[in-house]
């Protein structure tokens, strides 16, 4: 079998970019609404806003294939992109859990995210999700990583992972 990534630059040809991404695939046991249509939708909305309001930013939006099969899409990208080109990676995965948890990936972006949520009166905490998502190949290559995760939920990787179970 094969898989593809979809990658788009706000400012093509930029020498140093921030990569923002989410995976497009799901496990066979579930339809993938929370894991990870919620992350892909958030990245699409970020791309729309950045393109409309901040077209000069050097941001690359990526939609990874084969995350659930072993991080193949993000790993292939990291292995082929010039390392000096990527200044950081932000990952968005499982954002619609009803857990009420606002999890911020541990790392160099955590303080900024915590400040963002704090200013809005939202209780968030730094979490270590280890190598369980597409940020892992970037971190292994020495790229600073960050991201958001809304916590585990009852329908994680199950058939009930549907729109009705997402908040």
Structural account:
With 167 residues, this protein is an alpha/beta fold. 28% of the residues lie in helices and 21% in strands. The chain has four helices and seven strands; from the N terminus they run ββαβαββαβαβ. The protein has helices at 33-53, 72-80, 110-119, 135-140, and strands spanning 6-9, 17-23, 59-64, 86-92, 103-105, 125-127, 145-149. Strands 1-3-2-4-7-5-6 form a seven-stranded mixed beta sheet, sandwiched between helices.
Provide a compact summary of the structure.
The chain is an alpha/beta fold. 28% of the residues lie in helices and 21% in strands.
Kindly list the characteristics that best describe this protein.
167 residues, alpha/beta, 4 helices, globular
Secondary structure topology:
Elements: E1 6-9, E2 17-23, H1 33-53, E3 59-64, H2 72-80, E4 86-92, E5 103-105, H3 110-119, E6 125-127, H4 135-140, E7 145-149
Parallel strand pairs: 2-3, 2-4, 4-7, 5-6
Antiparallel strand pairs: 1-3, 5-7
Q: State which percent range the strand residues make up.
A: 15-25%
Q: Based on DSSP secondary structure assignment, what is the total number of beta strands?
A: 7
Cα shape = globular
Radius of gyration: 15 Å
Helix content: 25-40%
Q: Describe the main β-sheet briefly.
A: 7 strands, mixed
Mean pLDDT comes to 93
- The structure class reads alpha/beta
Q: Return residue spans where pLDDT drops below 50 for at least 5 consecutive residues.
A: none
Number of helices: 4
**Gap from first CA to last CA:** 33 Å
Strand order, largest beta sheet: 1-3-2-4-7-5-6
**SSE series:** EEHEHEEHEHE
